[in-house]
Amino acid sequence: MEVIVRSTKFNPWVGLTKWSNCFDYISTYWTRSGVKYTGLTPEKARELE
Question: Cα-flanking dihedrals φ and ψ of residue 9, to 5°?
């Protein structure tokens, strides 16, 4: 069996290569302690609400 991996796109903004069937998702996630993590400061979160 032979596996051939070909890149499909190159993102010049961050210098990353995108592969076929791979996706980027931007979202929040839960930490191990059960707290929802957004990456925002409390001030920025209030501003965006």
Answer: -140, 150
Give the C-alpha distances (Å, rounded to integers) separating 22 from 17, 28, 41, 47. Answer: 10, 19, 29, 33
User: CB–CB of 44/32 below 8 Å?
Assistant: no
Q: Over the stretch 23-36, which tens digit does the pLDDT of each residue have?
A: 666 777 888 888 88
Cβ-Cβ contacts under 8 Å for 17 (sequence gap 6 or more): 7, 9, 10, 11
Confidence band of 43 (pLDDT split at 50, 70, 90): very high
